[in-house]
Amino acid sequence: MLDEFERLILKVLQHDGRASTQVLSDAVGLSPSPCWRRVKRLEDDGFITRYAAILDSKKLGLNALAHVQISLINHDVSSIDTFETFVEESEQVLECASITGDFDYILKVAATEPEALEHFIMHKLLRLGVVRTTTTNFILRQLKTSGALPITT
């Protein structure tokens, strides 16, 4: 179980992963040493899995974002392993989730332009030999991209 200090630490770090121990300790009402020990424990216990910078996709020339729904041909171990290895190794795949319904997975994919996204689907994804069908929805505008999880206090 997380205590109040730890929940506050997590809230602050989700919004500013570069917050110094002093900034964290001021925000949560602890002195720096106990605050640092709590952050270290949160990391060691797997509550904090990594730190990352959130980048502007447009400034990087990634002007085509899409959700791609995937149905696999079959669900044997080999097919699933092939697909999941591809997802792990592909920088264009930003997110992947196993889902319920008519499809098996949904990907969030980034590309420089629609043609590059088509190339990714046709020449990489479908050539895996394990994908039955895909449905692609272009993201026209992202209303919220937080990444922060709700932490009740």
From TrEMBL:
Q: What are the GO cellular component annotations?
A: cytosol
Signal peptide bounds: none
Taxonomic source organism: Sulfitobacter marinus
Output this protein's name.
Lrp/AsnC family transcriptional regulator, leucine-responsive regulatory protein
PANTHER family in the cross-refs = LEUCINE-RESPONSIVE REGULATORY PROTEIN, TRANSCRIPTIONAL REGULATOR AZLB
Q: Which GO terms describe its molecular function?
A: sequence-specific DNA binding
Please name one Pfam family that this protein belongs to: AsnC_trans_reg
What keywords would UniProt list here?
A: DNA-binding, Transcription, Transcription regulation
Report if keyword Aminoacyl-tRNA synthetase is assigned. Answer: no
Q: Name one GO biological process term.
A: regulation of DNA-templated transcription
